[in-house]
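=== RUN LOG ===
request id: a7f3
mode: sequence -> structure
chains: 1
length: 142
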Amino acid sequence: MGKAGILARLAGRLLGRKRRKAQSTAKGYFETQKHRLRAIVLILVVAASVGSIVGHRYEFSVGERSGRLIKFSHEGVFFKTWEGQLRLSESASQSWSFTVPDARLAKALQERMGEELTLHYSKRLVGLWWVGETSYLIDGVR
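=== RESULT ===
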């Protein structure tokens, strides 16, 4: 093998290495993009979770509503919650839905079904689906 053959072989090896290096750099680029995308999705999921929990703990308003208790039930497939409805006036169109997180309070409301009563509530900024269907949480009854 002469000088030309050795040079051609050496040039082929050098060019092949460069080509392999370019391919590995492209693969590394896409792997880096996958990691960035995963990190962004993870950050968004964590931020949404923390925001929901903080929003649920924040009391948007606190007050009382009076009316006749017309519906009260234990609802849900996986997470059973106490849900009720209060008729605010004599017309059936004005009703108010609420959630009762406390089982003892739920028992007391069951016993007073159909009666006029006043419910003390706190409205949460964000309602969580495993706590109840509404963001109005009842914490007292008169």
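=== NOTES ===
The radius of gyration is 32 Å.
Residues 59-141 form a domain with the OB fold (Dihydrolipoamide Acetyltransferase, E2P) fold (CATH 2.40.50).
=== END ===
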